[in-house]
Design goal:
The chain is α+β, with helices and mostly antiparallel strands and 334 residues long. The chain is built from six helices and 15 strands.
Length: 334
Amino acid sequence: MPEIVKISNPESEISNQVFIVPANAAGTRLDIWLTHQAIACQTGVSSRARIQALIHDGHVTVNGQMAKEHHKIRPGDIVRLVIPPPVATALIPEAIPLDILYEDADLLVINKPAGLVVHPAAGHSSGTLVNALLHHCGNLAAIGGEQRPGIVHRLDRDTSGIMVVAKSDRALAGLMNQFKQRTIHKNYVALVWGQPNPARGTIETLIGRHRVDRKKMSVQPKTGRRAVTHYKLMERFGDVSLLRIGLETGRTHQIRVHMAHCGHAIVGDAQYGKRSVRPLPASVGRQMLHAETLAFTHPVTGKPLSFTAPWPADLNTLVAALRKPEPQPKENQS
């Protein structure tokens, strides 16, 4: 661990720290090394992308000089990190109802409905979870200093289920560190086409941006990032199966990409799946994927926490309909 020197903050800064590079970090990229230090010291900066932006904007110096993110650090280098106050957000608080499972001064656990976008992006400038959180929490806009205040992880728009949101910088840094260390446990339930064989297994590939359709992800054997998904067959309904799925990594669209890759696409997934080979006994308007459980350590109190999000109505209805035996044709009587 490098030596850390804390400096009193002028009004134009919210964090000003100096790190002295240890011998075992020699040759490491500045952005990679500084990201680890920022998370470990709970500075409120919790991603490499944020560190890169701070470097680019001149808020990071090495031995008093500005440096590039790919600069290779040396033992004894003095790295100064200055985190400016968050820029006022243009996001508008909106009174969107939230299904809150737990809340305290540092974090919020919610059951996100399908159809709700997590944070503003192209085509979704309002009506998002972030807009709802700004209304509910009031001062959330300053957490993280980015356009995704309080957001620690995300679910796709049409995936329902459990999410944790940070309400303080210390909670944000602590939760981000737990996700990085893979000590947060997430489990999903999903309906997929076909019957996976074996009934219990692990899918491990590299996942990256699709080479043609940039809105999609795909298995990239040479250039992707490691992705590991564990699954267990819970019930069979003919050509549809109910799975419980656990994530070891958290790549974009990971479950949907992995299940489609192994020939068992999520039922209702219009982006990665296929059209139904037969009529389903209940309507399906989105991918049948639900983040059911989330377990982690409270980033401030250290208390173990575990939560379960009830299944949404559409998933409940479809599973109940699939469990009903198909009506048998009546025999002709003469």
